[in-house]
Specification:
Layout: E1 2-7, H1 17-20, E2 23-25, E3 28-31, E4 34-37, H2 44-53, E5 59-61, H3 65-77, E6 81-85, H4 94-101, E7 108-110, H5 118-129, H6 135-145, E8 149-154, H7 159-163, H8 169-174, E9 180-186, E10 192-199, H9 201-214, E11 224-227, H10 232-240, E12 253-254, H11 257-263, E13 268-273
Parallel strand pairs: 1-2, 1-6, 6-7, 11-12
Antiparallel strand pairs: 3-4, 3-5, 8-13, 9-10, 11-13
Length: 275
């Protein structure tokens, strides 16, 4: 049997485990002097009260390796194969740490997703199409799909990405000019970069919507509308989007704190697969 693990950088919620047939390993979040397990003992309301009202800057760290190894090896010992889809190595050390942790386990595959949140959801959906196949077959399917996954998002500010070390100072300064709205994406190595810039929020939203057409969005896969804190701009974005794409959209995803602490409040965008 294939067992599938993700970390909370997938933004798959604990109450969605059965729906996606996954095990979720929580990343750690440091708020002030207290550490929390993402999605376990940190509510969205409390997280945003600390982020917005108390102006705390959260930090994220690796999941508990002891707990992760224990949970994975329980399945290995009973004869199951395990696939682990962690957040991109370009923004987190989780992938490399897990790869080293399980490098001597032939029944465990740790795959660099080079994406996050909705991109990992799409990869999970892909695994679920081939649960009856062997590890090699599934890994090949995933490696073909990963370069086709596109993240396009508009953060309210680049401050959180920069302070968290996910965006260079040069990109931060260039995208922080007055009235400029940057569009953010992941490059092929899974690192965050500025895709383009627009003057004003409306033009930025029009540019974001245009990427569905320009990048030849494949509606045979899910489109994941995502946001942090407020979904107002996302609602407006969906209204601006050609109706042919709407049937492929899953329920909007309010991103988990592990990702929201880097994107900041009021970010929004789409994750989709290109043809």
């Amino acid at each position: 049997m294939i067992r599938l693990f993700v970390d909370s950088g997938s933004s798959i919620k604990q109450n969605e485990k059965k729906k996606y047939d996954v095990e979720i390993i929580p990343l750690k979040i440091l708020l002030g002097d207290k550490e929390y397990s993402d999605g376990i003992d940190l509510s969205m309301d409390y997280f945003y009260s600390k982020l917005i009202d108390d102006k705390l800057f959260p930090k994220t760290s690796l999941p508990s390796l002891e707990e992760t190894e224990k949970r994975v090896m329980e399945y290995v010992r009973q004869g199951d194969d395990v696939i682990f889809l962690p957040i991109s190595s370009g923004i987190s050390g989780t992938y490399n740490t897990l790869r080293m942790l399980f490098e001597d386990q032939p029944k465990v595959r740790v795959i660099d997703t080079r994406t996050a949140v909705g991109g990992i959801r799409i990869l999970v959906e892909e695994v679920n199409k081939y649960r009856d196949k062997d590890l090699d077959t599934i890994e090949k399917k995933l490696l073909k799909l990963i370069p086709r996954i596109k993240v396009v998002a508009i953060p309210e500010t680049l401050e959180y990405l920069h302070r968290g070390g996910r965006l260079s100072k040069t990109a931060y300064v260039a995208g922080s000019l007055a009235q400029v709205k940057p569009l953010i994406t992941f490059d092929l190595e899974g690192r965050v970069k500025v895709l383009s810039k627009a003057i004003g929020l409306k033009r930025a939203m029009q540019t974001l919507v245009s990427h569905l057409e320009e990048d030849r969005c494949d509606t045979n896969y899910s489109i994941v509308p995502s946001y942090t804190y407020s979904h107002k701009n996302l609602v407006d974005l969906i209204k601006m989007t050609d109706k042919k794409y709407v049937p492929a959209m899953i329920e909007p995803d309010n991103l988990d704190p592990a990702i929201a602490c880097h994107w900041g409040p009021n970010a929004f965008g789409y994750i989709f697969v290109t043809k």
